[in-house]
Design goal:
Blueprint lengths: L14 H10 L1 E5 L4 E4 L6 E7 L2 E6 L5 E7 L4 E2 L15 E4 L3 E7 H10 L1 H27 L2 H16 L3 E2 L3 H8 L3 H13 L3 E4 L2 E4 L2 H9 L1
Antiparallel strand pairs: 1-8, 2-7, 3-6, 3-8, 4-5, 4-7, 9-11, 10-11
Helix pairs in contact: 2-3, 4-7, 5-6
Length: 219
């Protein structure tokens, strides 16, 4: 479980740069629900996921959450080290959605590498561009796609991600992912249930008609 196995541009670094990472990258195991980053004032460093699943989200002034992206094995989170990027500040929160293992590279170390290595600087730009595209896609979904279609797509994606049709999700959890009030989620899920798309029970949403749900998500 060496850091080198998970950092894509490792072989493009000098021995000195590789040594800098080996000496400073901290391996952590975190439990589900652990808060890893709590806003722009928190700049602990870059997160590199070894295993598990992290969730990055923003919180409105009213306390409503919306997931902007998730992080899986070998994914890199730069926004937890946003202080190293000039004029970019994000009020983003990152938590572990599952028990996870990750490396943390201190901000000052990664900033030094970016200044010394063209490969690291280019890779960082690629990652940031990818995250920006995800956020833009999310904005388009919120602005132009009706909630029934967004909810259907979320359930389909969750089913694929978890490998099951029986999803352990509360209505509040779904609302937090989609940036919507729990009551709105409840009403739409009840409608889905009346249409035979899902079956609801406490803390669980079971997909009962995957083809129709997928068709709805694509409309």
């Amino acid at each position: 479980m060496e850091f080198a196995e998970y950092f894509p541009v490792w072989n493009k670094l000098t021995e000195e740069e590789q040594g800098l990472l080996r000496e400073n990258a901290l391996f952590r195991r975190v439990e589900k629900g652990s808060l890893l980053h709590g806003g722009s004032a928190d700049c602990q460093g870059l997160l590199l996921v070894v295993s598990g699943q992290l969730r990055a989200y923003i919180v409105s002034e009213e306390g409503r959450e919306i997931t902007i992206y998730r992080l899986f094995e070998r994914d890199l989170c730069l926004l937890s080290a946003s202080c190293i990027m000039q004029n970019i500040q994000f009020e983003i929160t990152i938590e572990a959605e599952k028990d996870s293992e990750l490396y943390v590279v201190p901000s000052r170390i990664y900033k030094a590498l970016m200044e010394r290595s063209v490969s690291v600087a280019n890779y960082t730009s690629q990652v940031m561009a990818g995250r920006f595209s995800e956020v833009m896609w999310l904005l388009e979904q919120i602005m132009w796609k009706s909630f029934d279609k967004r909810l259907a797509e979320f359930l389909v994606n969750e089913s694929v991600l978890e490998g099951t049709l029986c999803l352990k999700l509360t209505h509040e959890m779904i609302g937090n992912h989609l940036g919507t009030a729990r009551e709105v989620v409840t009403r739409m899920l009840r409608y889905f249930q009346s249409e035979g798309l899902v079956r609801l029970s406490r803390g669980t949403v079971e997909i009962t008609d995957s083809p129709r749900l997928e068709e709805l998500s694509r409309k």
